[in-house]
Amino acid sequence: MNTPLNRMSFHNSAVGILAGGGVLPGQVAQKIIAQGRSVFIIAFEGFAEEAVIRPFPHAYVRLGAAGQLLSLLRQNHCQDIVLIGPVRRPSLLDLRPDKEGAKILARLGKAFFRGDDGLLAALVNILAEEGFHVRGAHEFLHESVGRLGVMGKIVPDEVALHDIELGIKVIHALGKLDIGQACVVQSGVVLAVEAMEGTDKMIIRAGECRQPRPGGVLVKLAKPGQERRADMPTIGPRTIDNVVKAGLRGVGFEPGSTLFTDMQACIDLADQQNIFLYGIDL
User: What are 144-156's pLDDT values in tens digits?
Assistant: First the structure.
């Protein structure tokens, strides 16, 4: 175990951001800098978006190059780290781990072959053993976390609320198997559940299955016991756009455990399209 980072002064340390895709890595970096701290971004090759990370100190690292990743974090005096942005899980063949990566794979053991949450939880533990403190993105993006109740002008009716109740049961059942965070329910019928394809493709599939009756609801929640520091449910304008295209009536999400990539844009688009955004009282 490496421990020198534990002796590092908080004020002298930077926050390392392990960046996948999307805009959230840049938003986290901006908030950290606004707090008077520096950042260093580890941009995962093939996933991080150049326009998002370009304004900040960064280096590109492929997923399997754990030795390079850890070395860069230490060279840039990173003590706290944030994992943010989607990354597609590679096969062992594609991963091509370096020497340190092979050691970490050995430490992960069976966790590498579990669902995403089991793998991420194991990675968080290993990073802690290496002397880093893993922080959740929501700790920096307070205003981007979904709120309880109706967000916007549209209120779910009784049919939608019943669909949300069923969706909660479905996701909790799926979550125990570490499968997915979302499903679509229409008038008591489950149209689709999320698996490896992700929420957006699942919504499209649900639209193809929609029955000739009122709408349907996207329900998106954290899995039971999910490691929120590494993987929080995320909703963005593209999610709302896909909900509209699929003919759904709204979105039910978990308040306090859902990140919005652009909350005001999501609310505005939902209002324009008569779609509700509803933080579920669990």
Answer: 999 999 999 999 9
Q: Which residue's structure tokens are 């652009």?
A: 262
- The structure's pTM equals 0.84
Domain that holds residue 54: 4-139
The answer for residues whose C-beta is within 8 angstroms of residue 248's C-beta and 6 or more apart is 184, 186, 203, 206, 207, 210, 215, 216, 217, 218, 275
Dist CA 182 CA 39 (whole Å): 32
CATH number at residue 100: 3.40.50.20
What angle in degrees, to the nearest 10, is found between the helix axes of 237-245 and 199-209? 10
The structure tokens listed for 169 are: 């049961």
* Residue where a domain stops, chosen among 139, 169, 185: 139
Among 124, 139, 154, the domain-final residue is 139
Query: Are 274 and 155 within one domain?
Result: yes
What would the mean pLDDT of 66-93 be, rounded to a whole number?
85
